[in-house]
Design brief:
By secondary structure, this protein is mostly helical. The protein has 32 helices and no strands. It is globular.
Length: about 600
């Protein structure tokens, strides 16, 4: 991880007090009381509804606007103003600073007012707000950094360093306080003091991007370019998306990383966000639906992290780590449009612009903007033709466009640029090649690539699912294929695509009674997926439930299936009509999918299920 690992209870105790009274993202509109009823305005009810829906969907800017309007319409109902304030922070809106003075006394209003004062150059006022924030455990972490940077902004470098001195003794985060002290001393012209502090911090801090850039710059000023280069190489290797900006990163560390106190304030908030992100990583995979307490804690952590990152970017729009972390966090929350937007707004001379564009192209692929993503990636490859991450992303975009030969070429380029033997996550490059080969009916080549990928990652559900599914479709070793699929489902029991694949293959192997319930569950979870509806219809047909089969196929044909699936669904419906009119020997031939697979046949259609 990027930072020293804190216990779950320590991080939770740091974060939870900050959001006391913070409206949960899943909240519903408040039950109207007398104040609302007396307002009696349709506009109020409309804005409450819009605000609640926007909040549920993660559109914090719209939620802030709607609740701000509601607060204006019902000024006696303080909750609306509070919600407008918090959602303004979550959206990164300057409106938060205007709303802060009217909020009840608390940590967030003081932080927001302090930040606004700092941006206006009113450093003494900023320091006072940071001092006035009510004491709690998270302010124990933040206050020394915020106060120190506000004092430095006011030209009081000695006082700023004295403020950080007790915090530097912290066993867990002392290295970060020492690093900030070094930057403050450097900015105040105390270079000898700064050198001493930098030297102390090198053995105490973690490997986050900001720390790496700061220490690499300092090493260069000390004439230790080789050590700086090695440090940057290690960071880029651990965060491959930075590869596209390698040259820019190498150039930027020749200049001071922090030149203004507002940047230091931004990094203080970034530190809290990184600690929270570490805690969320520990929660990864938790079943939130079955553990309400865990879900509430995760929601609180996510909301706090987002506010910390938004405040960091308000103070320093060039904070690359905050921008990337915010986008990543929104993507994890399945808010890809907002994740993409979070990567906008960087300064035109930001050294990591190419990184943001790469991430945006990846998000475009996920959102279905395939052609736009491919254009963006080809443009980036003109600048960095040896970047394997760009070639891999281009392969993903082309695969999504069903441009199989071009996708294969892109993945092969990426594989050729791997600087070592294939290992770990390199299975994805092999998997992409395998899909491109199989979709061109090059099954032997695809099978070899899938098996090679499985050697690198033997417990990867996607690989097991695709290999097992394809083996059945190509009539190879049904028993082995079934074992692969059962392993995939055991490893990812909540993956509906894998559940569909397993149910479909079991049914195709003649295990209709076992496969049918899995397909029914899949349709229940994804009721408008044409391939899954088609599969369930076939299972019903093979189980003798003809009317239900036709109903599922009729549903499937309405859900815009791709051309190959449409042909299959149409063939099944045609056969069903012929069977009904001429049972038991209809004139229309029996579609291949309506009988169990027992022996190899002609190569199957390349789009016959949900393998990936």
């Amino acid at each position: 991880m990027l930072l020293p690992r804190l216990s779950r209870m320590v991080v939770a105790s740091l974060v939870v007090p900050l959001l006391a009274g913070f409206p949960n993202r899943e909240m519903r509109a408040a039950t109207p009381d007398d104040a609302i009823m007396q307002a009696g305005r349709q506009d109020l009810a409309t804005n409450l509804l819009v605000g609640s829906v926007a909040a549920n969907e993660g559109d914090n800017a719209e939620a802030a606007r709607a609740f701000s309007t509601a607060a204006h319409l019902a000024p006696g109902f303080r909750l609306f103003s509070e919600r407008a304030f918090f959602y303004s922070i979550m959206a990164g809106s300057p409106q938060a600073a205007a709303l802060a003075p009217d909020q009840p006394s608390g940590v967030m209003p003081e932080l927001v007012m302090g930040n606004a004062a700092a941006l206006a150059g009113k450093w003494d006022e900023a320091a006072t707000h940071y001092l006035n924030a009510p004491p709690d455990q998270i302010m124990n972490l933040l206050r020394p950094l915020l106060r120190a940077w506000a004092l430095q902004g006011a030209g009081k470098t000695d006082e700023a360093l004295a403020t950080l001195e007790p915090a530097r003794l912290d066993h867990t985060l002392g290295g970060y306080y020492t690093l900030h002290a070094a930057l403050i001393a450097q900015l105040g012209g105390m270079q000898m003091r700064a050198d001493t502090l930098f030297r102390q911090s090198t053995s105490m801090t973690g490997g986050d991007l900001f720390t790496t850039l700061v220490l690499a710059h300092w090493l260069i000023t000390q004439g230790q370019e080789a050590q700086a280069q090695a440090m940057l190489n290690e960071r880029i290797a651990g965060m491959p998306v930075l590869e596209v900006a390698r040259a820019n990163i190498m150039a930027m560390v020749r200049r001071p990383v922090v030149t203004h106190a507002a940047q230091g304030l931004a990094q203080a908030y970034g530190l809290v966000a990184l600690l929270i992100d570490q805690q969320l990583y520990a929660h990864d995979g938790a079943d939130e639906e079955r553990q309400p307490d865990a879900a509430q804690e995760i929601g609180t952590l996510r909301g706090t992290e987002q506010m910390m990152l938004r405040m960091a970017l308000m103070l320093d729009p060039a904070d690359s780590e905050a921008r990337l972390l915010l986008s990543s966090m929104l993507h994890v929350r399945k808010q890809d449009r907002l994740a993409r937007e979070a990567l906008d707004g960087a300064p035109a001379d930001d050294p990591l612009l190419a990184v943001y564009r790469t991430e945006q192209a990846d998000l475009d692929v996920m959102m279905g903007n395939r052609e736009q993503a491919a254009r963006e990636l080809r443009d980036l490859l003109q600048q960095a033709p040896d970047d394997r991450m760009l070639w891999s992303s281009l392969g993903d975009a082309l695969l999504d466009q069903q441009k199989w030969p071009e996708a294969l070429d892109a993945y092969q380029h990426a594989t050729a640029l791997v600087p070592h033997r294939l290992e770990g996550d390199d299975w994805r490059l092999l998997f992409g090649q395998a899909i491109a080969q199989e979709r061109q009916n090059h099954w032997p080549q695809a099978r070899a690539l899938l098996q090679q990928a499985l050697q690198l990652s033997p417990n990867e559900p996607e690989l097991l699912n695709y290999l097992g599914y394809s083996m059945v479709e190509y009539g190879e070793n049904p028993a082995m294929a079934e074992s692969y699929l059962r392993r995939a489902l055991a490893l990812a029991p909540a993956d509906n695509q894998i559940r569909d694949s397993v149910g479909w293959v079991l049914m195709r192997l003649g295990h209709v009674a076992e496969g049918l319930p899995l397909l029914e569950q899949a349709v229940e979870q994804m009721p408008q997926d044409p391939a899954i509806n088609y599969h369930l219809g076939v299972a019903y047909w093979m189980a003798g439930r003809r009317l239900e089969a036709v109903n599922e196929w009729q549903n499937a044909i309405q859900f815009q299936p791709d051309p190959l699936d449409r042909r299959k669904i149409t063939a099944a419906l045609d056969y069903a009509r012929a069977w009904k009119g001429n049972a038991p020997a209809p004139a229309t031939s029996l579609p291949a999918d309506l009988k169990p697979v027992t022996t190899p046949a002609t190569p199957p259609s390349p789009a016959n299920g949900t393998r990936h």
